[in-house]
Specification:
Elements lengths: L2 E4 L2 H10 L7 E8 L3 E5 L14 H6 L18 H12 L7 E7 L2 H11 L8 E10 L4 E9 L7 H16 L4 E3 L1
Antiparallel strand pairs: 1-6, 1-7, 2-3, 2-4, 4-5, 5-6
Length: 180
Amino acid sequence: MIALNILDIKKCMSLLLTGSLFDEYSLIEAQIKTFCTFSIDGRYEAAFFVDREETSSHAASVSQDPGEDHDAGYPDYVRWGDVREHCFSMIRGKKTPLFFKFVFFFPKNLQEAFLTKSGSTMNPAHLSGLCLNLRFDGKSLVLTTGSSLTVFTTDRSADRAWDEYVRKLFADQGILVSDL
């Protein structure tokens, strides 16, 4: 796990809210405080897409919007690309938000390839998620990374690989960061 101070907040926010770089990441939760506090639980509500006149047993069998491929990420959570514009509409304006927090998971369908490419010795079955958190307190924007494991292990190769990946990702986008 690393914590980084984002030095170019405006550029990072533009990338996050108007770019597609994170669109395939799963949004676990979001909180945005402007004139009021908006909270988003990123859990995907498949029942929303079922005709309300249909039986509840049919609703239970529908696991996703037929027009979407939620299996690419975490099927229980929406992709950032599906809610990005909504979050942008809450943040944009002349006044800076008082606070916001976004919690993302790296696309699940890319985790095994990520581990292999990085040279990590972590068993892919033991990794349940690679996490990226962005938190703005009104003045500074902090990014933290993390991983979620299904077992206890002393193998931190996935953590190290993820931390390096995130540093490179932001560097490749021209976003300056500093260690906290």
